[in-house]
Amino acid sequence: MSIVGLLTFANFNHVMAQDANATDATEQVAATDEAPAADAVVAEPAAEETVAAAPADDTKSFHQMLKEKYIQGGAGWMTPVLLCLIFGMALIIERILYLNMATTNVKKLLEGIEENAKKGDWNGARELCANTRGPVASIFVQGLDRIDQGLDNVEKAVTSYGGVQMARLENNMTWIGLFIALAPSFGFLGTVVGMVQAFDDIETAGDISPTVVAGGMKVALLTTIFGLITAIILQIFYNYILTKIESLVDQMEDGSISFMDILVKYHK
Q: What are the two backbone dihedrals, phi and then psi, of residue 195, each rounded to the nearest 5 degrees?
């Protein structure tokens, strides 16, 4: 009986131990399942805050937009327009620098010539003109070189060399005008070719839906836009250069008249 009792008590303790272990395991699993859920609940607002704190940056720089439109217009037609802009601006910069260097203080130069003429120092007057930059001073040098040949020869030299200097002032202006005309012409040509391609797409698709036409039309018109912009930019600088040339020509004419008056007054 004692042995049977001991065996029964041992079995009972073993069963109770297994039940306790199973209960602990169940509680641990439940706690483990609840913890990620709680973490997920906490993490979701954080994720939402992160998304809200980082707004989408869809803005593009002017350079990026210009590059994108250039590619959309087609390099085959946009490149000639770009070359017109580059070569035209190169010639414009050259003309502006040349004309700025050709600007002369004619009044001060004439005063210096008159001071030397009063003393009869024509060599000093010629040296003064030779050391002064600009077309007006160059014309005076040509006149003073012929001072001993008479005033008639001086006047002819001044008039003839004045025409040479005017031609130099207008150098490369024809090429600038050519690029002004070519830029929109290339743009229109690209647009016409693009329109033909758009109609080819319509014929291939067998449909005149806006989605078929709009894409080709947009690409075609980009060449015209860039061509017109190029022509406008070049035309503005072209007119500025023409105004500068007209101002220098007026200086040359007025200065030549005053120069001859000085020679008539002091030359004997």
A: -65, -40
